[in-house]
Amino acid sequence: MTSEGVIIRVSGPTVVARSMAGARIHNRVLVGEDHLPGEVIRLEADRATIQVYEDTTGLCLGERVEDIGVPLLAELGPGLLGSVYDGVQRPLHAIRAKSGDFIGRGLAAPPIDRERRWEFRPAVREGDAVGPGDVLGTVAETPRIDHRVMVPPGSRGTIREIRAGTFSVLEPVALLADGTAIPMVQRWPVRMARPCRSRLPPALPFITGQRVFDVLFPLAAGGAAIIPGGFGTGKTVVEQNLAKYAGADVIVFVGCGERGNEMTEVLTEFPALTDPSTGRPLMERTVLVVNTSNMPVAAREASVYTGITIAEYYRDMGYRVALLADSISRWAEALREISSRLEEMPGEEGYPTYLASRLAGFYERGGRVSCLGGEEREGTVTVVAAVSPPGGDFSEPVTQSSQRTAGVFWALDPGLAHRRHFPAVDWKKSYSLYIGAVDDWFRETVSADWTDLRQELMALLQREEELQEVVQMVGIDALQEQERIVLTVSRMVREHFLRQSAYSEADATCTPEKGYRMLKAFLSFHALCRDLLARKVPVESILALPVREELERMKELPGEGFREAADGLIARIAQGGGNR
Amino acid sequence: MEGVRRVSMGEMVEVLLPDGARRRGQVIEFSDRFAVVQVLEEPTGIDVRETRVRFAGSPARMPLSLDILGRRFDGAGNPVDRLPPVLPEKWKTIAGTPMNPVAREKPSRPIVTGISAIDGLNTLVRGQKLPIFSAAGLPAREIAAQILRQAGTGDGDPEPPTARRKFAVVFAAMGITFREASFFLREFERSGAAGHAVVFLNLADDPTIERLLTPRFALTAAEYLAFEHGFDVLVILTDMTSYCDALREIATAREEIPGRRSYPGYMYTDLASLYERAGCIQGRPGSVTQLPILTMPDDDITHPVPDLTGYITEGQIVLSRDLHRNGIYPPVDVLPSLSRLMNLGIGPGKTREDHRGVADQLYACYAQGRELRRLEAIVGEEGLLESDRRLRRFADAFEREFVGQGEQGRTLEETFEAGWKLLRTLPKGQLTRIRAEHVVRHYGDGAAGRAAE
């Protein structure tokens, strides 16, 4: 049922309209003569409060508000991959074609190209009984991703007709006995989680390609991680590196209230970069949802939901999906701004008191699931959200609320960033709750001593920390020789193992195997130093061993032949650290 | 204000005072019973009985044509140079509309500023927004003026930028003193930029609220020059701290819920609506580069103004009181300084092949040297290893020679040479952040390094 009202009040991004009886909460509305899109967020008698997804400048008293009768929906179907959307899934390329280089008002365009035709290959036969999640057929959306066209949640029946051939997304490809026509595209309200058969505990790691994460603080596929850090600590570079190198079939990148030039970087780089695992252009596995900081606040609030709905959709097909949000703090600020316009009672730092529950609701939409449908399929949505705490202070509400839900905490430290130690992950504050769940995989796939090496590394870093305190007080002369070795080796590990240059061709990403061998080499070197010391070799000549520079340049070795080179180096260290 | 019928959000109004004087204002909120109007100028004389308000029917707009070059306006866009109003080629609303992210061009052309700490370590790129984080008593305006004077493309272009036809400066002064404003105006004259400058002046004793419009007028002018006439525009916004204070003043007057340090919760969004107007567009020649200047109250970088700015801008140039006190000019503290777009504007064909490596290496060694300086203060020089002492000396020399170049501009080659000169005081094997072949090419025979050992 639809209704029509008139504007009686405007305040920032919110509008109040009269005679809106019949409208429902979260229904989409069109506001004013320009048909600005909006969403009903509060109802009192016949008055509806609406958050408007565009700038409200120019709206007049008495202009009409039209209720469309449906909530904010995401359109899901072949053609999503490679697209660039704003926060309410308007395709930015189509918008540019309509309004030029600057975004005009009240523009609408279908999220998925209506003209494009796709080759549909049926997977069911007439007479088959199908239910939600069953795969009707597939479309080769990219050479890598087979788009599985599924029965939408809520439909069930017997196939009366199934078609094969090329179709546009709106043409039905299947008819059920009750006459329901199923096209390739389906719609889903973004604020509701898409259903699954059951949720499963995480078991496999989400390989990020960054040593400090994969080795020290691993993330599980289907888990959630947050990256808090003040400005300039490299959150965005970390997120972009994950988008480039992480082991996932589909990446949904939500640029939420961040910089326009950064999105341009992604847009120009990704089509040119290739996915390391498939050799295909990165853009083919990426969906971008972009609502930069100067685009409307209310659409920013919706952007993370649009993004995660798309992620869930590919999860339902059985893919490993990563949702990268940069930054969730800007989403929280949008929530705060709207809340204050509604004159709600503010909680901590002016954020609404439901901030924590909304955040938890968002993170919990990630996960590893057994998908709907007769055939056994497993999909994951891994959520990685950057957090921008004001003044870099982690005690603020967004960091704190996120920390309670997310299983991985990758804290970024300005001190490290100032020293250009990137990724600037503070190994003292960071943690992962998934270690127990994913270490079996590392031990089986990479090496049996994976867990031991990690512990040895943590112990070394911890020991360095203690020794630094001593040095600060009484000087380096007070240390024993063995302790000076600890300081040197730990510095080498920090500089040449934990540090990883996003701009270096060979080092930008790192497989678990390479990371393992590097760590093994460094720790073997430490063992060698201790051994030589015990044999009364002076510290100076130990530290002048030629393998040292080799170790320090190890990260730059190319992937091809790395294994042999690394094993050779480890063997030479084991034999006393001589030259080749 | 009550009894308003036809009113729209953001509409400009004229307030007619009982004594016949006129003030301008803007609609900032309305309902069926009232409209809230923000008065932009001195409110003296406004009463509730006789004052009348006339609605203009449109939001604040600016008349634009190429004639704005060389002109001077007040903070609300009125000419203050005793010349007639600009004959408009077109009118534009000053709030602007967001640039479509897919229409943006990736910034990639470096601007060589002649300042080593910027060119070598924090390269400025056309279309970037790079603020200077200053504090009371530090020479931010001198640095801004120096950049303006020296900024070139680095491709052997001998002419100063101000002499080139398609270069323009847009200067927006918000709440700065007459003394500071006249410094900049003199600089424009001195560097020959005056004819290419569009100046908007809202001085410390001008109405606070007008300050909210000043940068919007300035950026509207900048976008017009850049994207309709192909100018490379450098926008200097000073002082952003006064702008934010004005925002806070208005928010408090509107009885909004205050956020950190009483600044409104939407300050991030508001600042973004200014800073994000920097950029380049595909297929159009011009660019808008922003150089905002802000004052960190009490040197505090976590204060909301620098904090939120840093989250939006593509890096920051941070000035240091310690360096300034030691007589080092420009006193750029390179450790917290950053240019996020640096990588897009450097490397072979743009600056030099070893740029990334040299910058990383200088940073790493300087950071270590700085830490050792702290340590030395506790344990004395004898407490350090010889290799540490070398790094410690490196840090001193880096500040004195590389950063502290004085008023004299440096070419890119001179900047790199200054960097390598310092790096040669360290053993070759220590330069692991530079690619081996670049070390071979630029380190020299290592005489200096051996001497150091």
Write up what this structure looks like:
- The complex is a heterodimer of chains A (580) and B (453).
- In chain A, strands 8, 18, 21, 22, 23, 24, 25, 26, 27 and 28 form a 10-stranded mixed β-sheet that branches. In chain A, strands 1-2-5-4-3-6 form a 6-stranded antiparallel barrel. Chain A has a 4-stranded antiparallel β-sheet with strand order 12-11-9-14, with no helix packed on it.
- Chain A is globular, with a radius of gyration of 27 Å.
- Chain A is built from 16 helices and 28 strands.
- In chain A, helix 13 runs parallel beside helix 16 (562-574).
- The relative contact order of chain A is 0.10.
- With 580 residues, chain A is of the alpha+beta class.
- Chain B is built from 14 helices and 18 strands.
- In chain B, helix 2 (140-150) runs parallel beside helix 3, helix 10 (355-379) crosses helix 12 (412-423) and helix 11 packs antiparallel against helix 12 (412-423).
- The termini of chain B are far apart.
- The model of chain B has no long low-confidence stretch (mean pLDDT 88).
- The chains are: A alpha+beta (580), B alpha/beta (453).
